[in-house]
Amino acid sequence: MDTSHLLNYLSSYAFPTASHTISTNIVLGISLGGHAAWHCVLHDARISTAVIVIGCPDYTRLMMDRARKSKLQTWVSTERPGAQFLGSVDFPKGLIEAIEKYDPAGLLMGELDVVTGDDHLHEPSDEEKTRLRPLMRDHLGGKRILCLSGGTDKLVPYQCGEPFLGFLKRAVGEGEWFSDRETVLEDIVDIEAGHEFSPKMKDEAIRFIGETLSGKSGMHAGTRSSKI
């Protein structure tokens, strides 16, 4: 929301005489900024491209991972650890409702009917696709996203965002059920990097932004995954 407010007034500060017109908005965020970049690219139509560095698109999984590692009382107090963490005082109902509205995984995967924990693995039913298509069209249509993660990151583990990224890649990949909206998702993991914006990640970010600005990207829709 703060970024969107800034965009409202950016041109008046950057070009007070209206000598230039801003035609493209690209967001790059690191760590907490990476979480925010996911929200920006999904919820602000003016932002067409995002570079997410060591950020997570699934706040719930990230917080559950931290609750488990820290042995939070609301995590360990049940016979099956974590069984009642969601909805507890540490993760209240109001927070869950906000996540379902704004968090990438909460917004999109919340439309899936299966709630077994591996709901991201199944092919969405026709009914689920009917609910998902307008959401994905409004929030992801024509967007370009580069997700950069550290393979040894313990603060924001890649594994926390991997289910959502896998779900999204299976939707927007070539020939898949949401492949006609020119959504690009690149998912790149620097296998040796921790919670950092590594030199290899910087090279990928520069490449991706350059391709976006030049319009010379070899990929105008679909996905790319790699480990560097």
Automatic annotation (TrEMBL):
Protein name: AB hydrolase-1 domain-containing protein
Superkingdom per UniProt: Eukaryota
